[in-house]
Design goal:
The structure holds two protein chains of two kinds. Chain A contains nine helices and ten strands. Chain A is of the alpha/beta class. Chain A has a domain of 167 residues: P-loop containing nucleotide triphosphate hydrolases (Rossmann fold), CATH 3.40.50. In chain A, the strands form two sheets. Chain A has a six-stranded mixed sheet with strand order 6-7-8-3-9-10, sandwiched between helices. In chain A, strands 2-1-4-5 form a four-stranded antiparallel sheet, covered by helices on one side. In chain A, strand 1 and strand 2 form a beta hairpin. Chain A starts with 26 loop residues before the first strand and ends in a 6-residue tail after the last helix. The relative contact order of chain A is 0.18. Chain B has a single domain, classed as MetI-like fold (Orthogonal Bundle). In chain B, 78% of the residues lie in helices and 0% in strands. In chain B, helix 9 runs antiparallel to helix 10. The N and C termini of chain B lie far apart (50 Å). The chains are: A alpha/beta, B mainly alpha. Chains A and B meet through strand 6 and helix 3 of A and helix 5 and helix 6 of B.
Chain lengths: 256, 235
């Protein structure tokens, strides 16, 4: 298969003024492999991501999108290859500057407010005023005292996103956060995500939803069968994908 | 042999007259078993949480040992504690044999594996749900254990209750290390055993009723609490 690694890094920072997380970039991935139970699931990925903006990862089910995200975030150990954030190997200090929102929100068995307090305390910045601000930003201020697990699916995901952002991450990974949500909730999640991007947080976002990809993406990584087939700026990708598979995928064909 | 009905009548009249001897026995029973629960709870929940979140060589063996120790025979525990605490034993210098403290130790040893094994299961189930999110936030292991213990608190109450039930109900261990000495180490179960063999069924039955009532009350309270917790999706 062809190596479609882009020749140069796509840097999407709006300004030259490098944000707080600039030292984490570029993210360089070299010959990354991951295998489980004798099956090779990630097959030698090379990828370079620049600071800022929203990188959308697309591809059919089983392409390895979630695995790639988990490897980048350090939830999984690679079987081979190299991941470097700004030239540094992934360690806990770097991981603490990242956050992740999962497809199914994990709600602690506590109130909405206590879910936020948990991360604020963890990062040593417990502060009721800050918590109130975070909940207001997520539109959950009036739900503060409710048990988190009784929120609707959309509200839970909003809380999960607010909780992830409460750590003030330089990188935010989002693994199909809106795949089970109604359009109104999806819109709120997207708006909060864009606001985070505008504050300089790098977003890496997996989605199956073509419309969502078009709304959010600054650049697109297209994956298929454990490989990255294409990494292009969003406009180029949606106009004329470089790989036949991506073209078929966007045309709604089943690709095998 | 007394008539069955008469025995019940005597039992209830003893209870409702708050017979001093009876109250003393009930009080000591509660003091011994609740203290044993406190001690075994502190240690057992820590062991349970540790086993739930850590992976180390020999963990499988540790789980088998803890799980099978849930079925420790009370008389065997009593015998071992007796040998440790008797004058010739390694802990004989403490002079604890035939004291309430010895009974607390015996009951704590008896219920520690129950609390450790059951809480390990409860906490591990919850950890499976939280693990990715905790890893993502880089939560340190000790902190993780504390947070899991807190979030599992309602289920763990049921675990503690299982421990208390076992402690209150057992007779084999406390009779060996306590000696069933009147006004000193006599608890409900040892009194029931003694009075039954003496043929004083009324007192034995009265204590039996008290034991059952305490068990029912505690269970009902915990169930009520758990129902509230479930409504709030905390359990």
């Amino acid at each position: 298969m062809r190596d479609l690694r882009p020749a140069n890094v796509i840097d999407l920072r709006n300004t030259q003024d490098s944000g707080a997380g600039a030292d984490l970039f570029p993210l360089t991935v070299e010959d990354l492999t991951y295998q489980a139970g004798g099956t090779v699931l990630i097959k030698g990925i090379d990828l370079t991501l620049g600071a800022g903006g929203v990188t959308v990862i697309m591809g059919p089910n089983g392409a390895g999108k979630s695995l790639l995200l988990r490897l980048l975030h350090g939830l999984l150990e690679p079987s081979g290859g190299w991941i470097a954030w700004g030239g540094q190997p992934l360690d806990d200090a770097i991981r603490r500057r990242q956050a992740m929102v999962f497809q199914r929100a994990v709600m602690l068995r506590r109130s909405v407010a206590a879910n936020i307090d948990f991360v604020l305390r963890l990062r040593g910045r417990a502060d009721p005023a800050r918590r109130r601000e975070i909940l207001e930003h997520a539109g959950l201020a009036d739900r503060a005292e409710q048990p988190a697990r009784l929120l609707s699916g959309g509200e839970q995901q909003r809380l999960a996103l607010a909780r992830a952002l409460a750590t003030e991450p330089d990188v935010l990974f989002m693994d199909e956060p809106t795949s089970n949500l109604d359009p109104a909730s999806t819109l709120v999640i997207e708006d909060i995500t864009k606001a985070a991007r505008d504050r300089g947080t790098k977003i890496v976002f997996i989605t199956h939803d073509m419309g969502q990809a078009r709304r959010l993406a600054d650049d697109v990584v297209f994956m298929h069968r454990g490989k990255v087939l294409e990494h292009s700026p969003a406009a180029a990708f949606f106009n004329q994908p470089a790989s036949a598979e991506a073209g078929d995928y966007m045309a709604g064909k089943i690709i095998l | 042999m007394q008539d069955f009905g008469e025995a019940f009548f005597t039992a209830f009249s003893l209870l409702f007259s708050f017979d001093a001897d009876l109250m003393e026995v009930i009080g000591l029973s509660l003091r011994v078993s609740l203290t044993a629960l406190l001690v075994a709870g502190l240690i057992g929940l820590s062991i349970g949480a540790l086993l739930a979140v850590t992976r180390f060589p020999g963990r499988g063996v540790a789980l088998v040992v803890v799980n099978s120790m849930m079925g420790l025979p009370p008389v065997v525990v009593g015998l071992i504690i007796y040998m440790l605490l008797s004058n010739a034993g390694p802990l004989g210098f403490l002079g604890l044999l035939y004291t309430p403290t010895a009974m607390i130790i015996a009951q704590a040893v008896l219920i520690l594996p129950i609390i450790a094994a059951l809480s390990r299961q409860v906490i591990e189930d919850l950890h499976n749900e939280y693990a990715d999110q905790f890893r993502s936030f880089c939560v340190p292991t000790g902190r993780m254990m504390a947070e899991l213990l807190w979030d599992a608190r309602y289920s763990l109450l049921t675990v503690m209750l299982a421990g208390l039930g076992r402690a209150m109900a057992e007779v084999g261990a406390v009779i060996i290390v306590g000696g069933n000495i009147n006004h000193l180490t006599r608890v409900m179960t040892t009194t029931i055993a003694l009075e039954t063999s003496k043929g004083d069924l009324a007192l034995a039955l009265g204590l039996g009723v008290v034991l059952l009532t305490i068990a029912l009350t505690i269970n009902a309270a915990v169930m009520g609490l758990n129902a509230t917790a479930k409504r709030q999706a905390y359990a």
